[in-house]
Amino acid sequence: MYNPSVSGGSANTLAGSRLFVYEVEGLCQNSETDQANYPIRQSGSTYITVPYSRMNQEMQRITRLGGRILSIRPVESSVNGSAQVTAESQAASKSSKSMTQAQPEAKKKKSDIPVNIYKPKQPFMAKVIANDPLVREGGIGIVQHIILDLTGSEYRYLEGQSAGIIPEGTDEKGKPHKLRLYSIASTRHGDLMDDKTVSLCVRQLEYNHPETGEKVYGVCSSYLCGLEKGAEVQVTGPVGKEMLLPDDEDATIIMMATGTGIAPFRAYLQRMFDEKERQANPDYQFRGFAWLIFGIPVTPNILYKEELESVQAQYPDNFRLTYALSREQKNAEGGKMYIQNRVAEQADELWKLIQEPKTHTYICGLKGMEDGIDAALAAAAEKNGVNWEEFRKQMKKDGRWHVETY
Ligand code: FAD
């Protein structure tokens, strides 16, 4: 299995044999720092060049020796072989806090989780940077990827949290609309990697009125899907502690999504596998195993298809992608292939993984998807003499079972 922290291993597949310069303060000259060959200076910061493959170890050693990392910059080898900081990385270090500051990412102590920085009474006015369709030709309905600019706000969030949106206008009683929640589809650094945006994946709610048969469109989802670039939106939050990713870089992450339930998983996968993310988070270098089971009606509705398939192609040992295409594929009984049918098909393998303490299981998407998945896993557990209900409860207590459906 791919392991980026092993020097000389297959790390090249992710970051290559790149070098990084750590700017460190607080180190004192002693036998250990001498042994480590750290060029301690009498005053100011010390600069230490570290190969990508040793970033974690060096970070731990520096911390152990009392040093504090002030910044990290990628280095490019010049023609004569000496290391130099690129203009691009210098610019990045000026403009982007996340690219340069190497404070260890928050270990998820409750107090470290940002919650309700912006409350419904005082939302932040974000600007729409992008509003792009995710459903391709021949697909069903409207789903948009929306990037909101948070410049000037205190807003920050973690992967797995949700943002609140207050749509413009008033409800039928003339009162301002209530906020709706949307899972955040970007990592904490945002799609532009500048810690200044948040992305959402929004499906326009559309249904036939059960009595009149009239087409009804959801208030907030229609508002969001129809926003033009440059429009302003009231954003609250972030909220949610249920769907956070564990800090464990060796974890197994099982993700089951239907429709826009993919949103938090897109953020997880970027955090785990995207090269820019990995450079920005030297203390989170995922080397575990992630498995996404994604239920969607037809191929053109596979949200973020290219991104997902690119991760699978690049990291086949670390990421498995399984689709359940209900209107295109058939289950074992010849019926539609819903996510629960796919889970049932893979239940023995899933059950094996789920029992391992390092495995976290996440379910996100349509209300109602949980029961079928539960039944499929219960069958596998009970085949092995385990009471699934109790086992699941224990997983929940251990913080390994995460569900967000709506
Ligand atoms: P509204 O105008 O509020 O209409 C919704 C109401 O319409 C329902 O309450 C119900 O009364 C009625 N209704 C809906 N469907 C039918 C039907 N078939 N038949 C009859 N009546 C019906 N949505 C996303 O698109 N992406 C996300 O990432 C996302 N994440 C979420 C995360 C969380 C934690 C939660 C709680 C919800 C999330 N949602 C997400 C759902 C989102 O919050 C809104 O509920 C959704 O967009 C609909 O809001 P609306 O204002 O458009 O619809």
From TrEMBL:
Composition-biased stretches (Low complexity): 89-103
Gene3D superfamilies, sorted: Nucleotide-binding domain of ferredoxin-NADP reductase (FNR) module, Translation factors
Any one GO molecular-function label of the UniProt entry: ferredoxin-NADP+ reductase activity
Ranges where the FAD-binding FR-type domain occurs: 121-245
Official protein name in the record: Ferredoxin--NADP reductase
A Pfam family: NAD_binding_1
Entries under SUPFAM superfamilies matching the protein: Ferredoxin reductase-like, C-terminal NADP-linked domain (SSF52343), Riboflavin synthase domain-like (SSF63380)
Catalytic activity, reaction form: 2 reduced [2Fe-2S]-[ferredoxin] + NADP(+) + H(+) = 2 oxidized [2Fe-2S]-[ferredoxin] + NADPH
Superkingdom of this protein's organism: Bacteria
Binding site for NADP(+): S183, R203, T260, S326, R327, K336, G365, L366, E404
Native organism: Halomicronema hongdechloris C2206
GO cellular component, one term: plasma membrane-derived thylakoid membrane
Protein keywords: Antenna complex, FAD, Flavoprotein, Membrane, NADP, Oxidoreductase, Phycobilisome, Thylakoid
Alphabetized SMART domains for the sequence: CpcD
PANTHER family: PTHR43314
Cofactor list: FAD
Organism phylogeny: Bacteria, Bacillati, Cyanobacteriota, Cyanophyceae, Nodosilineales
Membrane-protein topology: Peripheral membrane protein
Annotated CpcD-like domain residues: 17-75
